[in-house]
Write a structure and sequence with these properties.
mainly alpha, Cytochrome p450, two-stranded antiparallel sheet, 8 strands, 8% strand
Length: 312
């Protein structure tokens, strides 16, 4: 938390905006693009690369390689588990990533900067510092947890907005609603629909009995549509007043509250606002033809073709 805290919020905003604009620059004159492949997948991982201080000249290519290495990890989120082949692939990726970042740690020790890796090395709590293994594990986790979940959520948000054109029109005319809009997108169609927890001691809850060692599947997507908690829960409304960012289940809670929750919110706000600002007539023509990933935990689409008037 000392290395990755709210005092860097403005830095996150500027960084996300810069990368979003650069990505849009690459395809704005084309008149069409796959928003997932060329925007949603690239933005989160390029932000993480920049936060870690990776060489700007290599960031684009490295982001591609890092994305390829983190793909096997996405299966770890699945309630159905991983096959032996998928475990082997994830282990191979882990070893490659560990070796790469161990080298990066040595570079920062010799020449520290203001990037996140240097902050990890300098962070101290009650006289204790993180070990190299701790730092590397946290860096890899940033890529795994902060990439596909965020990229899927960018796609889900655009789908929700285009399926509710009145709300999209309102957001275009009132961009100050972006924070409320993102919170509603997270509630309405979150990229993480399910989580699972191990029971640490025998317990009872609402008439159900659980034993130590049981696994409980928690359906956050269902909870966010709870009619006892939300008024008209199946209605998408970007100015909804009965939902609060801190009450969303997307980011966990307590000791294990998501470290990158604030960065994720910033990336989502910037991703949506920048695209609407740069491409005001952008539309998604085939909303009913999109293909969702075959997943029972992570929700997102394989591609999201968009079109607009090319700006030559």
């Amino acid at each position: 938390m000392k290395a990755f805290n709210a005092s860097h919020t403005e830095e996150f905003v500027l960084l996300s905006r810069t990368i979003a604009d650069k990505l849009i620059d690459h395809f704005i004159d084309q008149g069409s693009v796959d928003l997932i492949k060329s925007y949603a997948l690239r933005l989160p991982i390029m932000v993480i690369c920049k936060l870690l201080g990776l060489d700007e000249a290599d960031t684009g290519a490295f982001a591609e390689e890092m994305w390829a290495l983190t793909v096997p990890f996405s299966r770890a989120f699945e309630a159905s588990g991983m096959s032996s082949r998928e475990v082997d692939e994830a282990n191979i990726s882990t070893l490659k990533l560990q070796a790469f970042f161990r080298n990066e740690l040595e570079k920062r020790r010799k020449r520290p900067t203001n990037d996140l890796i240097s902050r990890f090395l300098q962070a101290e709590e009650n006289g204790q510092r993180m070990s190299d293994d701790d730092i590397i594990a946290n860096i890899i986790f940033l890529f795994v947890a902060g990439h596909e979940t965020t990229s899927n959520m960018i796609g889900n948000a655009f789908i929700a907005l285009h399926r509710h054109p009145a709300e999209l029109v309102r957001l275009r005319s009132e961009p100050a609603l972006i924070s409320q809009c993102v919170i509603e997108c997270l509630r309405f169609d979150g990229s993480v629909q399910m989580a699972f927890r191990d029971v640490l001691e025998d317990m009872a809850l609402d008439g159900y009995h659980f034993s130590r060692g049981d696994t409980i599947f928690l359906c956050s997507g269902s909870a966010h549509r709870d009619p006892a908690r939300f008024v008209e829960p199946d209605r998408f409304r970007i100015d909804r007043e009965d939902v609060d960012f801190r009450q969303l289940l997307n980011f966990g809670g307590g000791l294990h509250y998501c470290l990158g929750a604030r960065l994720t919110m910033i990336e989502l706000e910037v991703a949506i606002n920048t695209l609407l600002r740069r491409l005001p007539d952008m539309r998604i023509p085939d909303l009913e033809q999109i293909t969702w990933h075959s997943s029972n935990t992570l929700r997102g689409v394989e591609s999201l073709p968009a079109i607009w008037t090319a700006q030559h």
